[in-house]
Amino acid sequence: MNNLKQHKEVFAHIAQVTHELDADKHWPLFLETWYAKDSIDKGVSHDDEGWESDCMTYCDDAAAEERMRIA
């Protein structure tokens, strides 16, 4: 796996700012998703729209799950 520092920074921004999620907790979980693995395998850049979309998809789902747990 290549250096994912910049990918993680994009994920962390979306997780923390947009969805108020703990990025450190969710980063390894996100990396296990098929869409994150697929993007990484295809060499999608950290500043690609596809990577941001993958991050948003995961964060939308994770935030919804956390809201359901609280309710």
Task: Characterize the structure shown.
The chain is an all-alpha fold. 75% of the residues lie in helices and 0% in strands.
Fill in the keyword field for this structure.
71 residues; mainly alpha; 75% helix; 0% strand
> How many β-strand runs?
0
Q: What proportion of the residues form beta strands (DSSP E)?
A: under 5%
Structural class: mainly alpha
The profile of the biggest β sheet is: none
Helical stretch count? 4
Task: Walk me through the topology.
Layout: H1 5-18, H2 23-31, H3 34-41, H4 49-70
Helix pairs in contact: 1-2, 1-4
Write a concise synopsis of the structure shown.
With 71 residues, the chain is mostly helical. 75% of the residues lie in helices and 0% in strands. Helix 1 packs across helix 4 (49-70).
